[in-house]
Amino acid sequence: MSSLKELQDLIHEKYGIEASALDPEASMREKGFDSLALVEFVFAIEDHFGITMPDDDPNIDTLARLAAVVDEVRAKQTA
């Protein structure tokens, strides 16, 4: 279960960025997401998936890593 596609759709909806323009393995900061934008996106993710993201992972910088964390949180909720 990968959330990557849903996250790409959410980015497109919220910021107008096409999925093809955002490499899942590239730094989101290098694509123009500053700290505030990342925090706002995390809130959007929490609302979209009905989850609470962990505060203790400062290494979430790529869309792929973000999707992995979302998947982990969702898996724990269903377990």
Give the helix/strand layout.
Layout: H1 4-15, H2 35-49, H3 63-78
Helix pairs in contact: 1-2
Walkthrough of the structure:
By secondary structure, the chain is an all-alpha fold. The protein has three helices and no strands. Helix 1 (4-15) crosses helix 2. The longest helix is centred in the C-terminal third of the chain and has 16 residues, at 63-78.
Report the radius of gyration as a whole number of Å: 12 Å
Helical stretch tally: 3
The total beta strand count reads 0
Low confidence ranges: none
- Strand content is under 5%
Q: Secondary-structure element sequence?
A: HHH
Supply the helix-strand structural class: mainly alpha
- Multimeric status of the protein: single chain
Give the CA-based shape: globular
Cα-to-Cα separation, first versus last residue = 14 Å
Question: Portion of residues in helices?
Answer: 40-55%
Major sheet summary line: none
Mean pLDDT: 88
Provide a concise account of the structure shown.
By secondary structure, this protein is mainly alpha-helical. It has three helices and no strands.
Give short descriptive properties of this protein.
79 residues; mainly alpha; 3 helices; globular
